[in-house]
Amino acid sequence: MQYDALLIRYDEIAIKGRNRGWFESLLVNNIRKALDSKATVRTYRGRIVIEIGEKSNFEEVKKQVSFIPGIAGFSPVIRLPLDASMETIESTALLLADRALELGLTVFRVSCTRPNKQYPVKSPDVQKNIAAHVLRNRDKMFTVSMKQFQWNLEIEIANKDIFLFMERVKGIGGLPVGSAGEVLTLLSGGLDSPVASFLTMRRGAVVHYISFYSPPFTGEESMQKLEDLALHLKKFQGRSTRLHILPFMDIQLLIKERCFENYRTVLFRRLMFRLAERIADKYGYKALVTGESLSQVASQTIENITCINDAVDHLPVIRPLITNEKNETIVIARNIETYEISIRPAVDSCTAFMPKNPVIRGTSAKAAQEEAKLHPLLEELMTKSIENEKVINI
Question: How many C-beta neighbours within 10 Å does residue 312 have?
């Protein structure tokens, strides 16, 4: 048995009203970009069909489709012409039945949907004919149950084709990448920020990244880890991305020299956010993204998040993981295969000069007071950091 197409489904796009066509076109274009010349993509009535040629690797195409945001699910299908005889449909159904036997599935039902109401045979009649044919030709191998079935033999009769399938694969869901503009993730190399980036992509954003290096604390292994994460995540958005790397050691040394130790991490993050906003403005990114989760670490209490957020002038800060438990984030990291990269040992800038007793409930007034100790040299160091920006195109 050889499948020759994928039947694509979407959920949220279907409720976009007058904008539905725009979202659907964007999703189709994203699929075409991801698959290049490996398949032909066409649409009909809330469905997208990917026709896969004989020279293309079906499993490879299937895997690539599973990475594309906006796709709620899909089915590998056998595609027949609309004028196929009932005998042809029945013989094709037997191919699926034989596949079910190979998998040890013996209780089935038949479901037929008929978007094409001009088709002369009604859905209940198609179901009865196909079920009877399978039972007759695979005597005592199958039983039928409408509620307790192990597999569902599905038939969809469309405008130009008839699709037969037995599997529904869950997709990423969400919205097509590119429908929500471009954003900038503060990428640390840990578990959280890559997952936050993925979840933001799933809501339609094109994600770019910014990180900071503080030699000799952050070495080549830290930079390589960041590149590997950005490259891996690229497959979900299906388009190029930028990794912005800014030097940060001089700013950290100034904070270490002039400010109270317990406010160091809050001040580090305030200035990282401020630099990130300037880079975002420079490149036209519309929001910042972080992997912060409420009260997960000392810098992520609601008071300290407020202190840090106050350093941002005008851009929104998206925090997809704000209510996640760590285990929930780990599950997603494993599913999207960033976990093994994230747990590789490597130091990030925030771990340099970490205070012994970081402030738990900082105040914006106190943070601003500590930051005032850094002037006038701070602005010069921030300008220097941006001037020495390194951009890696991925």
Answer: 16
Q: Which two tokens stand for residue 207?
A: 């994600």
Please list the residues that pair with 43 across neighbouring strands. Answer: 48
Domain that holds residue 253: 182-393
Of 208, 203, 202, the C-alpha closest to 183 is: 208
The token pair at 23 is 């979202």
* Type and span of the H or E element at 109: strand 107-113
Number of structural domains (the chain) is 2
Please name which of 382, 296, 350 lies closest in space to residue 187, comparing C-alpha atoms: 350
Q: If you average pLDDT over every residue of the chain, what do you get?
A: 94
- Angle (CA) 348-266-304 rounded to 5° is 120
CATH code: domain of residue 98: 3.30.2130.30
The 10 Å Cβ neighbour count of residue 21 is 11
Whether residue 149 contacts residue 108, with contact meaning beta carbons closer than 8 Å, is answered with: yes
207 and 336 share a domain? yes
Q: What is the CATH number of the domain that holds 344?
A: 3.40.50.620
Residue among 166, 137, 132, 163 at smallest CA distance from 149:
166
Model pLDDT for residues 277-332, shown as the tens digit of each residue: 999 999 999 999 999 999 998 889 999 999 999 999 999 999 999 999 999 999 99
DSSP string, 56-106: S-HHHHHHHHTT-TT--EEEEEEEEETT--HHHHHHHHHHHHHHHHHTT--
